[in-house]
Amino acid sequence: MLKKLHHVGIVVRHIEAAYAFYRDTLGLSVHKQDILPDQGVKAALLTIGASEIELLEPIAAHTGVARFLERRGEGLHHLCFETDDVVRELDAAQGKGLAVIDRQPRPGLAGMICFLHPKASHGVLIEYAQP
Amino acid sequence: MLKKLHHVGIVVRHIEAAYAFYRDTLGLSVHKQDILPDQGVKAALLTIGASEIELLEPIAAHTGVARFLERRGEGLHHLCFETDDVVRELDAAQGKGLAVIDRQPRPGLAGMICFLHPKASHGVLIEYAQP
Question: Sign of torsion, CA B91 B93 B97 B100?
Answer without folding.
Answer: negative
